[in-house]
């Protein structure tokens, strides 16, 4: 068993007092010097140790004051034993404490435990996930808003073409009224006639609705090489007198189709120089400000287009009224 630090200190003191300091040969001085070093009051003052009353002095000092080596040896043993018993008694409660229990007690007294760390980590992870979801939602909203704004800005635009009366006209002349534009060509065998007939039915419905303003139906050709103003006039007249056809140079038609993102491509010519033009089958609704509002594909019926147009026109005038 190892000796405690206080016990070693006392042993050093005792060793210094009894061994390292040479005793005087004179028997008369020995008793006085020994009495001083083992005096219990002196040890209590120097190191705070209170020795028992059974002193080394009684054992080592003869009444005659003569030198007694055996007595001095026993006195040394008694001094060291007394110090050992004193400190062993003082440290007994600490020596009987189990190490494992002590470590457990210390872990219990610790302000941070593994459970606390796990809870904090879980809360931190949940907070991070929540912040990520909120950020993602905001990014989606911004993306949708930007897409909507870009759609309005990138689809539609001004154009200048020649109508089927031979007059040069600009899209700006139609400011203040609603227009419904379809891109096709007069030599189209089936799809274009079907779509134009559908547009005419929609216009007939809107004209009959007193709550709706007049809508101008327009056909812009994607075959400027063959669709002259005269050809367009004859073609449009077959469907409705309200229908207005436009043509122009290849460059002018290309600019108009690009504004509305319309695809068209002329196919190879046969032996009669006849060909088919492949193109998008879409109609575009434009408001009085010349802004694109909505589009209608081939799958939309005339009734669906009519309801959609009526809703857009109603919303438009409500917004205009709020603007003042």
UniProtKB/TrEMBL annotation:
Q: List the disulfide bonds.
A: 188-192
- In the UniProt record, does the keyword Cell membrane occur? no
What are the boundaries of the region Disordered?
Answer: 89-108
Q: Name one GO biological process term.
A: mitochondrial respiratory chain complex IV assembly
Annotated InterPro entries? SCO1/SenC, Thioredoxin-like_sf
Q: Does the keyword Disulfide bond apply?
A: yes
An example molecular function term from Gene Ontology annotations: metal ion binding
Q: Give residue spans, biased composition: Basic and acidic residues.
A: 93-108
Q: List the coiled-coil residues.
A: none
Binding-site positions, Cu cation: 188, 192, 279
PANTHER family the record matches: AT19154P, ELECTRON TRANSPORT PROTIN SCO1/SENC FAMILY MEMBER
> What protein family does this chain belong to?
Belongs to the SCO1/2 family.
Q: What is this protein called?
A: SCO1-like protein, mitochondrial
Source organism: Elysia marginata
